[in-house]
Amino acid sequence: MFEKILIANRGEIACRVIRTAHRMGIRTVAVYSDADRDALHVSMADEAVHIGAAPSRESYLDADKVIDAALRTGAQAIHPGYGFLSENAAFCRACRDQGITFIGPPVGAIEAMGSKSAAKTIMEAAGVPLVPGYHGADQSVVILREAADAMGYPVLLKAAAGGGGKGMRQVWNGAEFDEALAAAKRESLNAFGDDTMLVEKYLTRPRHVEIQVFCDGNGNAVYLFERDCSVQRRHQKVIEEAPAPGMTPELREAMGQAAIKAAVAIDYEGAGTVEFLLDHDGAFYFMEMNTRLQVEHPVTEMITGQDLVEWQIRVADGEDLPLAQGELAIRGHAFEARIYAEDAENDFLPVTGTLSFMQPPTAGAHVRVDTGVRQGDEVSVFYDPMIAKLIVWDEDRDKALNRLTRALSEYRISGTTTNIDFLYNLASCAPFRRAELDTGFIDKHHAELFRDTARDIESDLPLAALYLVLRQQRTTALHARRSDGDHRDPTSPWNLNNAWRSVTDNLHTLEIVLHDTQYTVAVEQQCGATTRYLIRHGDRVVCAQGVLEGSRLRADFDGYQFSATVAEHDGLCSLYTAGGAVVFRLAEPDLGGADQADTGGGLLAPMNGTMVALLVEAGAAVKQGDALLVMEAMKMEHTIRAPADGRVVSFYYAAGELVDGGAELLEFSADE
Ligand code: ADP
To answer: How much distance in Å is there from the Cα of 242 to the middle of ligand 1?
Structure first.
């Protein structure tokens, strides 16, 4: 067995690999960039080697530096994790040339799956079912269009070199074809330096179901069942689960055997994932094979009781697979939710920030948290904004789902926007509970997931108001108890808890912001044997009672009793109820006046991105609305304009520099 391995990665996956290696008695070497000098994975490893600047190209993607670090520290093997160099055939070959074991498949297998069209040709020959389509070498427009016309619309154009959903276009009819093809080719050439296209039948409501396979170098191959990853945003997974709901033993066996066929066809070794589209009629089609450990591998570990990283290391060391097919069984149900620093309400754009407070739910037999960050760490522009993976397990899907919503409601993160509220809404909405899964899930249930319908606001507003009043009273009570020695006077009217005003008589008026809209809510407090609150918004009146204890709110609305878990960060309140997350804040007092807000408004970076161009000289006079600079983020350009007549005193960033979302971009002086 290896004495020492190097982990060519960062974040949660580096930490996760290190944990297993240590359990197996193997020493570990981490690598790190400038940005990760104090990162968790560095502190967990026995040794750590600095390999360059923060941008991945200059560190984690630099194969020579990684291999050099392994040679210098005497690591006998490299675990690549996922992303970065994990599916890079040249890196795999370079490891082998240096006598270092690559903990992953052989070079040939990576190469075979590197191109989606070449992969499909191999799979076709091996008898693995493919989505009907064209993946030939002749790329003339006429041939591609004929292929599309013949299979019937809608079709999906895909970049052969594609990944991450780039270079994909849906085409709904023949008239749209030429233009869509040109756009997909442009995007693909831009992203991958190659514009070879394939045309596939576009399945309108498929599920994404993938099979975990494992092969050793001694001719053994097994499948560790399936994962359903249908819930996606921007063609990227958000919540995964295993086993796939509604799976029959026959279908599982058929998909498992097809996946093994795919792996055997390319002489696979190690952990691999064969991705399929599963149509509603039960037909399934090969999509691609990922020749590495997947982000979502923990759900498979939870239902099989196996450690896949341990399997990877043992197989790479030449051992047989630890178990045969007949020894593997599914136990219970597992979910994984990916916690991202991102703004779900703003098209899921990634955000940055410092994790000023972080408290994950308590881990145990049912809850696992895989993370690579600690409180105080920064989510920077350089890497993937995933903060953690929350994995839960229980005996069946319903119970596991209860674990998931509870754990999400207990996750506390301040300092950056996260998708926790969105995940909570997803996990608690009825169609998800009923497992009505397909890849269009988020679009289809948008209103429910974002709770922005009139019906939701009617019920969410009074709850928000009740919470704010109870919280205010708790704070006042605390102050009264703490008021200083001689001046202590719990009977002072200033310390009263019932919104006492000498003239207004127990009335609170709250300005609450829900979904970017400000609402005025009046709360009248009626003190009797029990305190009641009449909560009024427009014509609607709710008679409420409530108790706030710790992070638990118990409410009674017109006789209907329910409870919610409360989380607050950065002035934003989230109330997690059985129906979803209610997210709101108290409107900030308008101190600056409208004019000031207007002039300050557009001069902050709208998101993390790169400065593309400064359009005027510092010092030059500009008119209101003139374009001042262009930023780019996620391939979208944003123009920042002059908020008023005036001049730019100075720009804080030069073209090409990275900018954090929310950062001030320039100093502006408006004319008097
Ligand atoms: P990438 O490698 O860019 O991630 P994939 O080929 O893995 O692209 O596809 C990503 C997602 O796109 C799938 O999970 C699925 O949701 C959707 N998709 C891919 N092919 C099809 C198809 N033929 N019909 C419908 N949806 C598809």
So the answer is: 19
Per-residue pLDDT, 498 = 61
Q: What is the mean pLDDT of each run of 10 residues along the chain (672 residues)?
A: 98 98 98 97 98 95 98 98 95 98 97 91 93 93 95 94 84 94 88 90 95 97 98 92 97 97 96 96 94 98 98 98 98 98 89 90 97 94 94 98 96 93 96 97 93 86 95 81 57 60 67 91 89 93 94 94 90 90 82 38 71 87 87 68 87 85 83 82
Atom 10 of ligand 1, nearest CA residue: 235
Q: Shortest CA distance to 399 belongs to which of 331, 446, 489?
A: 331
Q: Cβ of 167: how many Cβ atoms within 10 Å?
A: 26
Query: What pLDDT was estimated at residue 360?
Result: 96
How many A from CA of 232 to the centre of ligand 1?
Answer: 10
Exposure string of 649-660, with b = 16+ CB inside 10 Å and e = fewer, is eebebeeeebbb
Q: Are residues 195 and 211 in the same domain?
A: no
In terms of domains, do 94 and 166 share one? no
Is residue 526, in this structure, part of any structural domain at all?
yes
Question: What is the CA(583)–ligand 1 centre distance, in A?
Answer: 32
Pocket test for ligand 1, best of 117, 151, 168 (most atoms within 8 A of CB): 168
Ligand 1 site, CB within 6 A: 131, 156, 162-165, 200, 202-203, 206, 208, 232, 235, 275, 277, 287-288, 439
269 occurs within a structural domain: yes
Q: Domain ends where: 179, 201, 223?
A: 201
pLDDT at 41: 98
> Residue written as tokens 């308590």?
362
Q: Are 579 and 433 in contact (CB under 8 A)?
A: no
Number of structural domains the chain divides into? 5
Pair (76, 138) in one structural domain: no
For 432, the token pair is: 């998800």
Residues 335 and 389 grouped into a single domain:
yes
The pTM assigned to this predicted structure is 0.84
* Residue 41 belongs to a domain: yes
Catalytic residues: 292
CATH of the domain at 150: 3.30.1490.20
Q: How many CA atoms lie within 13 A of 585 on its CB side?
A: 10
pLDDT given at position 486: 47
- Show the domain range for 302: 207-450
Q: In the prediction, which pLDDT does 21 show?
A: 98
Q: Which residues pair with 532 in a beta bridge?
A: 526
Same domain, 364 and 441: yes
CA-based end-to-end distance of the chain: 75
Predicted confidence at residue 597, as pLDDT, reads 35
Contacts 24+ apart (CB under 8 A), 557-564: 557/462, 557/463, 564/463, 564/467
Q: Are residues 179 and 191 in the same domain?
A: yes
443 and 459 in a single domain? The answer is no
Question: Is 216 inside any structural domain?
Answer: yes
Q: Please tell me whether residues 561 and 445 are part of one structural domain.
A: no
